[in-house]
Design a protein that fits this description.
By secondary structure, this protein is mainly α. Helices cover 76% and strands 0% of the residues. The chain has one domain.
């Protein structure tokens, strides 16, 4: 695999981590453990596919699911930081998998995870908020977020260039949201 494909793989896996901070690293770690499209063995990021790490992630996924269904409120910033850290590690691991300098992927991976996080909150968060205002559960929307994150991660591992389309979609979501917010405030200025 050449550098372009390794970077694309890193972009997609870290972007998907921004959508679901714990689920995607677990999924990518299992794929790496099975040597399906990615392999962290013999790299500085071999721990990303270690059994102890995958077991810890699985336990954290279950704990996060239970917390999500309880009255405990976890600040969004916590999820953003977790996603950025794990996204940076996945990007770096993808580079080292192909014998490139992995540490160079940490910061871009963090940026891609943040982009995925912000786009997911803009795209899915609004729907969940509208459902909550009507007294309905956002469980279906959250499940769609899980499926979307896993689909982006799987495509990033198996067909890395598809990751660029995911980046374009996230940027479009953020720009469209900003444009709608600008139109909203423009309407308020006209009312003055």
């Amino acid at each position: 695999m050449d550098l372009f494909l390794a970077i694309s793989q890193g972009i997609g896996t870290s972007l998907a981590t921004g959508i679901r901070a714990l689920l995607v690293p677990l999924f990518v770690g299992v794929m790496a453990r099975l040597n399906v499209g990615i392999d962290f063995e013999r790299t500085g990021f071999e721990w990303l596919e270690a059994v102890w790490w995958l077991a810890l992630l699985a336990a954290l996924v279950v704990a996060a699911w239970l917390v999500d269904r309880s009255d405990i409120d976890v600040p969004e910033g916590v999820w953003a930081v977790v996603a950025m850290g794990l996204g940076g590690m996945l990007f770096a691991g993808a580079l080292e998998d192909e014998n490139y300098f992995g540490e160079a992927g940490i910061v871009p991976g963090m940026a891609c995870a943040l982009l995925g996080f912000l786009a997911a909150r803009a795209f899915l968060g609004g729907a969940v908020d509208r459902l909550a205002a009507r007294g309905e559960s956002g469980g279906t929307i959250n499940a769609l977020g899980d499926v979307a994150a896993l689909a982006v991660a799987a495509l990033a591992v198996l067909l890395p260039p598809v990751s660029l389309a995911a980046v374009a979609f996230c940027l479009w979501v953020l720009l469209a949201r900003r444009q709608r917010a600008g139109q909203k405030y423009e309407g308020l200025r006209i009312l003055r």
